[in-house]
Design goal:
elongated, membrane, transport, Peptide ABC transporter permease
Length: about 325
């Protein structure tokens, strides 16, 4: 069969190069997304996690600008206001623990100290202890966990037994015994910040085995992967493999578990202050305020409700944000 001069097989069956380059204007180019973009998109869709993150940012901002907030809306945290106290009963005048325009969250019984100022300064102390102790736990956990998982052998056995020992050790009792025998002023700092440093070291030291176990397990899995074997074959040394090849792949679980360990640190600091071995008086802390409110909760419940609500809201916000972050960074999530 012959083809006529006006008809060609190329024209009938195969599109020309010019035709292939012509694209329908309604079509949209498909853009690739990185893992960070995918995680951020998932996190933005989780309204509960975003709400928790917003509350966390507000609390951090309050802690940073605490002196300015006290100057504008409060009074010095250790200033007595006896004129706001009933001289007969020792309770705040007015309703809801003395809440008014001058005292936004009321005043403490007996001495009349401004609860708003003490809550704000307590947020500064609590978040400082929680974040820095979580950072210390993360650094120690990553170093020891990666070393145990990558080196293996007797090094892995020793580090694993140390982690088991610390996990089984009564952290709260040891913290009470240690903090109670240390002087209140150290390193040239006042009692508040000296005790804050002690709490950071104690809580951070006992918290690293939790992250260490996670990192160790992930490292055991990663060290057998192809990219690690390729790095070894190219002559890369162990430090480079650990920190340039494996650590970026451990960033997601490290970030998630660091976020989830912060609320635990908040509760630990509050418990130690509640038991009288945390931040020393007259410096404010949420746990210390709960301890002071025990003898007044029947007559002035707001004195206990306000610091308790702050602890609850802060811990809940971190847990919600941590859960959302874990779901966003999970490659198996839909």
């Amino acid at each position: 069969m012959s083809l006529g001069p006006e008809t060609s097989l190329h024209d009938e069956t195969t599109p020309t190069a010019d035709a292939a380059q012509v694209r329908d204007p309604s079509e949209k180019a498909i853009a690739g997304r990185s893992l960070k973009q995918i995680a951020w998109r998932r996190l933005k869709k989780d309204r509960v996690a975003v709400g928790g993150g917003v509350i966390i940012l507000v609390l951090i901002l309050i802690a940073i600008v605490a002196p300015l907030l006290i100057k504008l809306f409060g009074h010095p945290f250790d200033e007595y206001h006896n004129d706001t106290i009933d001289p007969t009963l020792g309770l705040p005048l007015g309703k809801l623990g003395g809440i008014s325009g001058d005292y936004l969250l009321g005043v403490e019984p007996v001495n009349g100290r401004d609860i708003f100022s003490r809550i704000v300064y307590g947020a500064q102390t609590t978040l400082t202890v929680a974040f820095l102790s979580a950072f210390l736990s993360t650094v120690l956990g990553v170093l020891f966990g990666m070393t145990a998982g990558f080196v293996g052998g007797w090094v892995d056995s020793i580090i694993s037994r140390v982690m088991d020992f610390l996990l089984a050790f009564p952290q709260l009792l040891f913290s009470i015994a240690l903090v109670s025998v240390l002087p209140q002023t150290m390193f040239g700092l006042n009692a508040r910040w000296a005790r804050t440093i002690v709490l950071i070291c104690v809580i951070g030291f006992f918290g690293w085995p939790y992250i260490g176990r996670i990192v160790r397990g992930q490292t055991l899995s990663l060290r057998e992967r192809e990219f690690v074997e390729a790095s070894r074959s190219l002559g890369a040394r162990s430090p480079r493999i650990l920190f340039r090849e494996m650590l970026p792949n451990l960033a997601a679980p490290i970030l998630v578990y660091t976020t989830l360990i912060i609320p635990t640190n908040i509760l630990t600091e509050a418990a130690l202050s509640f038991l009288g071995v945390g931040i020393p008086p007259p410096y404010p802390s949420w746990g210390g305020m709960l301890s002071d409110a025990l003898q007044f909760y029947r007559y002035d419940p707001m004195f206990m409700i306000i610091p308790g609500a702050m602890i609850f809201i802060t811990v809940l916000s971190f847990n919600l944000f941590g859960d959302g972050l874990r779901d966003a960074l999970d490659p198996k999530a839909r």
